[in-house]
TrEMBL record, chains A, B:
InterPro entries: Aldolase_TIM (IPR013785), NAPRTase_N (IPR040727), Nic_PRibTrfase-Fam (IPR007229), Nic_PRibTrfase_pncB (IPR006405), Nicotinate_pribotase-like_C (IPR036068). Residues 7-131 form the Nicotinate phosphoribosyltransferase N-terminal domain. Pathway: Cofactor biosynthesis; NAD(+) biosynthesis; nicotinate D-ribonucleotide from nicotinate: step 1/1. NCBIfam families: NAPRTase_put, PRK09243.1-5, PRK12484.1. Coiled coil: none annotated. Keywords: Glycosyltransferase, Ligase, Phosphoprotein, Pyridine nucleotide biosynthesis, Transferase. This is Nicotinate phosphoribosyltransferase. Its EC number is 6.3.4.21.
Length: 433, 433
């Protein structure tokens, strides 16, 4: 049993349960939905990530003695609510987009079918994991699309919270990054790890020759030498002098990368080091990666911009009650009225409409009934939890494969980096039929 | 003993240790420094946070059997390095700005004095905690400054990673927020928690009357009712009808807050509910808070923008080797040459120069020697770790008090929200003397 995740929750979820227990409505059958009202400004698609982590934490979402003791000592909820929480175990059903799936405004990323109290208490855990991981994966997918066949290395751990760093490495991997610098992500999620040396290593030594020679002796000729501590040209010459043409790589971490990559490639080739790779790592984002597309660069190391969602650190997902049983005992769609935060009531179903040659054309969302499949459509909601038991894969590898498949279906213009609208329209069944 | 934090580390730190062990330089006395080259665009000061969390995690930074097993299985470093890591325990000294202190470009926020290998392996843990928490605290401090005497409630857990959420609540509290929605932050860091109900609670009930009546019955008249699910005017009238003038508060979460706050205040007063508070919570940032300064608002609930640093989710702090013993056995300042990422070599000392009436005037940084105190200066570097033992307080309350003191010293213009330069200049001793 891992540590309880039950207090990764907002205060109001528990006070709502207390009030609903009082009103006798706590056990009403309900449907909660997670969706984005819109994509971040200019983005053409989003990428769902965090689902697997949420499902794993759901298993540990139990109010144990310590958690109950804290809530009692603080007087956060009354005794009846504490008793209810002590017995809590999610027993409902959850459907959702497979982790790694692409999404659009209104896509029902998670559909939670449970009693009010069982579902409302999961709001924060659902949104924390999905908002963070989807923000990272959505940015990372644009970067790997811009990088094409060249591998991207996630190395942003130092620019985000130590726990986010592990989740960000996982989300970037789902979106096509090949490796991470983060060792805990390697251990916990099985992601390949990578890294060689920082400027401090070179500065530790009395000269660059000493630093490079020792790194080669210890890590082997396939290592990557950081060549911009002093003078790049001199460092590249020294690197090849010491390692020979078998040198694995050189890394550039500052300056004009486009200009430097050309010069360094020419220099390496002139020295016979045709196989030596050039790794660039300075403040890259998807636009910088795209700007280097014609440069002789072999690998991109991305830090701050991938772990902070490249300008959009939260995906803007919300978790809303969309349906509940009425006094009359029938399920009714419900929605908040306010204009700027409107939502669509009702239990959603979703298909990705595809052309006969498999290109995504529209997000078809049915309200309270499944839309008619036209033969080429792909079902988007898969069963994640069945009567409280997790029934879907939660590993990053499965999600990574799913993302590659789902992104490949998008129309070509979806991968453009310029500001644009969602790549395909979201169509509610009412409008469509 | 808590879970090990040792793998919250980048791959390259361990390969650097391996190479330094090979070269015989692993034990060289070194000084590493954490600083920001610049403040985020337009900001006038930064706020140090995360120091206490770093110090607590430093205690658990040990490579146990599981961690060593992972590194061995993956072949990340060689056997000699694994043996060294298995024995690792930080045994050096760390100095730093007290948590909650304000800072400026070049301020030496952390000064780590240790061997190369002992210090280099802490880079990621230091930067993850300080970059994240300082980004949140720096944004939060602008918000509490704009809010003045009105309390700010941190409620952004749903918009950031579940672990970041807890740290963000702590950082916001340090910067003057009064409470958080996050229960784990309440338990772990002793922060007051707050919250009442979401729209889903109102929508659960067949009508708003039923929802409000039950909430009042369960949570008492001092509760805050969310009045914008359907029609604000009708909801406020209903709220006072049911609760009477003793109603604790009403919450507005959408629409034109400036206009609505005026109308709702007038309506409450007309109904005799003069003591009922107005809480606003829709997409607030420091600018929205400032825009509400003349509105009859009593409390601000801030979500996304505080936990994501209000546009700057990472503080831009770096961790650099600035001094090390040479072959000749003397400490020498070292620095990378590249123009866009220059650093200043040498062990730093720092004073806040103050006028006779206690207003901050300059950040005085001495290189390799302590600057002369002019009598009104305040020493900025305090001892955090002495020969491996944490000797400074790590709690949020102490940091919160420190921040209030340090911010109060700043010149008035430091608290302006408009784009500006750092509120006081950073002056290196060489220039000053």
């Amino acid at each position: 049993m891992n540590a309880s995740t039950a207090l990764l929750t907002d205060h109001y979820e528990l006070t709502m349960i207390q009030a609903a227990l009082e009103s006798g409505h706590a056990d009403r059958p309900c449907v909660f939905e997670t969706f984005a009202r819109r994509l971040p400004d200019g983005r053409r698609y989003g990428v769902v990530a965090g689902t697997g982590r949420f499902l794993e934490m759901l298993r540990d979402f139990r109010f144990g003695e310590e958690e109950i003791g804290f809530l009692r000592d603080r007087g956060i909820v009354d005794g009846r609510t504490l008793d209810w929480l002590a017995d809590y175990r999610f027993s409902g059903d959850i459907w959702g987009y497979a982790e790694g799936e692409v999404y659009f405004p209104g896509s029902p990323l998670l559909v939670v079918e449970s009693t009010f109290a069982e579902g409302v208490v999961l709001e924060t855990l659902v949104l924390s994991t999905l908002n963070h991981d989807s923000a990272v994966a959505s940015a990372a997918s644009r970067m790997t699309a811009a990088a094409g066949e060249r591998p991207c290395i996630e190395m942003g751990s130092r620019r985000t919270h130590e726990g986010s760093a592990v989740a960000a490495a996982r989300a970037a991997y789902i979106a096509g990054f090949g490796s991470t610098s983060n060792l805990e992500a390697g251990r916990r999620h099985g992601i390949p790890t990578a890294g060689t040396a920082a400027h401090s290593y070179t500065l530790l030594h009395d000269d660059e020759r000493d630093a490079f020679a020792n790194q080669l002796a210890s890590l082997g000729l396939s290592t990557t030498l950081l060549v911009d501590t002093y003078d790049v040209r001199a460092a590249v010459e020294l690197a090849v002098e010491l390692a020979g043409p078998a040198l694995g790589g050189v890394r550039l971490d500052s300056g004009d990368l486009v200009g430097q990559a050309q010069q360094v490639r020419a220099q390496l080739d002139a020295l016979g080091a045709h196989g030596t790779k050039i790794v660039v790592t300075s403040d890259l984002d998807e636009h910088a990666i795209a700007a280097l597309a014609a440069s002789p660069v072999d690998r991109y190391g991305v830090g701050t911009n991938v772990v902070t969602g490249s300008g959009h650190p939260a995906a803007g997902l919300v978790y809303k009650l969309v349906s509940r049983e009425s006094d009359a005992g029938v399920m009714e769609g419900v929605a908040k009225a306010s204009k700027d935060k409107a939502s669509v009531g009702g239990r959603k179903f979703a298909l990705r409409r595809r052309s006969a040659d498999g290109v995504a054309q529209a997000e078809i969302i049915g309200i309270d009934e499944r839309p008619q499949d036209d033969g080429d459509d792909r079902e988007l909601l898969v069963r994640l939890v069945e009567r409280g038991e997790v029934v879907a894969p939660t590993d990053a590898g499965t999600a990574r494969a799913h993302h590659a498949m789902a992104r490949a279906e998008l129309p070509r213009e979806a991968l453009r980096l310029s500001h644009g609208e969602a790549a395909i329209p979201t169509t509610y069944l009412d409008d469509w039929s």
